[in-house]
Specification:
This protein has 434 residues and is α/β, with parallel strands linked by helices. It contains 14 helices and 17 strands. 46% of the residues are buried. The chain binds L-homoserine (HSE).
Amino acid sequence: MTTVKLGLVGLGTVGCGTLNILKDNADLIAARTGCRIQVVAAAARDLSRARSCDTVGMSLTDDPMQIANNPDVDVLIELMGGTGKAVEVVRAAIMSGKHVITANKALLAEHGNELLALAEEKNVMVAFEASVAGGIPVIKALKEGLAGNKINWLAGIINGTCNYMMTEMAKPGNDFAPVLAEAQRLGYAEAEPSFDIDGIDASHKLAVLASVAFGVPLSRTGMLIEGITMVTAADIAWADDLGYKIKSLGIARRRESGLELRVQSALVPKSKLLANVDDVMNAVMVNGNAAGTTLYYGAGAGGLATGSAVVADIVDVCLAIAAGKNNRPALGVPMAKLASMPILPKDDILSAYYLRLDVTDAAGVLARISTSLATEGISIEEMRQQPDTKTGSATLVLLTNVVQEAAFQRALAALNGLTDLRAPAAWLRVEHLS
Ligand code: HSE
């Protein structure tokens, strides 16, 4: 029986979840892999901290480099997070011939190309199922289950904090600030929440998904990254009235001229399964040219859920070691064979749009608004209006057809130039997921 020795860097929630799974399901995992898996060493920033996992028999250190350079370790599991020290640790591990498993999407998005190329050169594997959508095996689905497909597009709810906030804001009386405060109290959002609410975390995950789905290098260059801070409870209520929910999405779409990559808040028809993924749950919808549309749903964070993905990679690496087949390409295709697909600029995005306009309630206003849109070839697909007799104003809510972003932005500027508007227009994109 092959023995595979692991070194774990990071004994936080996911590190402990991983150790607990390896212990509780040891017999099952041994039966499935035919390997004996042994965690021989672990590193943590603060070794004195009480933990919910057993580290007995492991050599413990507060220096992750000791794991990277430990000749007794076959596979380094990187769960320390961040990109500063982590890149050095992973680089050193690969240089010393270790396979690497990581949950670190920021590391992959920022340094993945260099690290994966180095891994190919050193004939070791880098696996990262846990880097996107926690316990959902979406990387495996893309690399293996859908390997026979040309992927047309994918759209995912890949940040649980944003999804929790969008779900809560749909409840009466809840708006952005108190919902964010509650997300922080529950430990979903950090005290400094921008990583989640500005779309940065999702952009790292989208870079990973797009690379695996389309065989392109890991990069966020040119990606549109928008958060959820522009979404109000009023927009969520209007969207509901129109038959939509507002979700924070990561979208990657292949077009003839290139790839659209965007993290954005968007209206999604309630009839789509993705619109019904609520609270902190994650889901990724993938459209391939053979399988059609498939959906992957589950917990996007948490020790056991994310640990499940780490253990799946451990099983994979162990099976490959036992079979003597190291160095499966991490992105599904070797780095040298990655496709070069231009990332389409924001102006070229094709989307439908939602507009909420606070206007003076007077004759001719609607005509001027529709002229501003029609001038750019934009047609109104649906409209609601709510007059306020007390103030002599009205709220107009419009959904447009699918147009180019540049045309929409020109129309938006024209609308904001109309004296009929009492405040700048609020707007969001609409995703029909087809
Ligand atoms: N902060 C992330 C989220 C979980 O809210 O989904 C870790 O990626």
